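Hey L., structure's done. Input below.
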Amino acid sequence: MRPQPQLADMMKGQMIDGFLLIRTAQQRSSSNGSKYLDLTLCDISGDVNGKMWDSQMTAPDAGEVVRVRAMMTEFNGRPQLRVDKMRVASDNDDYDMSVLAPCAPEPAGDMLDFILNRVDAFHDAKMKALVLTRLEECGEKLNYYPAASKLHHAERSGLLHHTSTMLRMAGYVCQVYPTLDADLLAAGVILHDLCKVTEMEADQIGMVSDYTVQGQLIGHLVQGVAELDRCGRALDVPAETLMMLEHMILSHHDLPEYGSPKPPMFPEAEVLHILDLMDARMFEMNRALATVKPGGFTEKIWSLERKLYRRKEKAGKGENRGEENR
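Output:
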């Protein structure tokens, strides 16, 4: 694949002849009655509106990769691509999906293996069977589903990325606080967001097109409890174990305004909430800070209700506070 400019770096008047991803595409009519395509095209750096004027081409589907020849222009002070030529990519085209769409930093198979190995180490056979059953029911979707539509881990395999990162943190926390039930916490981590696969409509690129009817009317917390209760009763999981896992799912957003009708009411549930919040915020902060130069501030991030500062440079080896105090 030959190199192509990233959308976020393109200047007015610059040309691109390469591959982009369709986020949205609609055929519209202009004031003179001619047809044109109104597009949102993206790569890993971001997305931009595009127009393909006087086009009878059928609008590509969201999630399709297209080959485009276009020029970066400007409309109302915002970047806009004027697309001269476009076609849907074929199997013979040479393009790298990782430069077109956000993807988790590890292969899906490796993250899933890590999760399954942790479940295999559970001491409670009933809890092991319960978690494995729920993972199996999610099926192939686990390999590509994001953890959100726009915010944290909105990327291909983002659900596995979020879960596996939290699972690693859970292991470290249990070393510091040995009174925690490590298997119960690990099970809660794995189960807490599994119903994201029924809450959202996502394609194999990890792009969410909409929330499902089930997702809008019920949501992944309540649906997660319902699915877990169904499986737990079928597998004859002890009542208290099942109830505690259901509480962990129901309470992991902590507050009613964030969707949880109950706050975490035992230590493993509290730790699950904290790990979930930490991983979500670290992901959003790292993503935002990657877009600004050292010494600069991000725009205000609405989900965090603040701007972020990117430090000019990190301390060199032996220059940090820990080294100075030795």
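The beta strands are 15-29, 35-43, 46-52, 65-75, 78-88, 200-202, 208-211. Residues 267-289 form the longest helix (23 residues).

-- N.
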